[in-house]
Specification:
The protein is of the alpha/beta class. 34% of the residues lie in helices and 15% in strands. It has helices at 6-12, 14-21, 32-44, 77-88, 124-137, 168-179, 221-236; strands spanning 24-28, 48-53, 93-98, 116-119, 140-144, 156-160, 186-190. The chain is globular.
Amino acid sequence: METIFDRTRLLLGREAMEKLHNSRVAVFGLGGVGGHAAEGLCRSGIGALDLFDNDTVSLTNLNRQLIATRETIGMPKTEAMKQRLLSIDPELRVEARQLFYLPETADEVDLSRYDYVIDAIDTVAAKLELAVRCHRLGIRLISAMGAGNKLDPTRLVVTDISKTSVCRLARVMRQELRKRGIEHLKVCYSTEPALTPIPEEMGEETAPGKRQTPGSTSFVPSVMGLIIAGQVVRELAGLE
């Protein structure tokens, strides 16, 4: 009988597809990177996905986020993502949790349940907390570095954080992880130097003391998310 994963099975084989079906992955952050990563996993045959985000879909998400349409504006991102994934694979076991993951809320999540964790969060404190806890538990983790202010998706690579350059977020993470006794972390980052947003287009974003909102496109965060999904699938399927 025909299934939605027939074409994938031609490349991976039945044993690998069974491994994916039996895997549970957590995706933290459902923005331009995390949303594409989650959908890439769903379309690859991952059996269970847990989605974590505390944000709602907004108008400015429409340029880059899978779940962002005129119809979903105002919806919790977790619910919008869950509905979309189940429309693709109704048999997917998916849990949506509206949670802002931080050191203060980290105890609410049992990371030991997961075969792999994807960090697509923007907040450094949250990324560090995930890295420390996954390291302690021996849970596989891949962390997305900065995708904002970039225009060249061909400059994205998966590597160890010790081998990164150019990316400011990777530098901060590398330094802070070392303070915590962690030397290695799998990351997806861009070797492209960050561009500077056009000042006259920033409007109120230039207000003193206000965090500068990075520019973004439809094609850099999405490619990063799919690269991350591909890395997770290959590892869980036993191909790497």
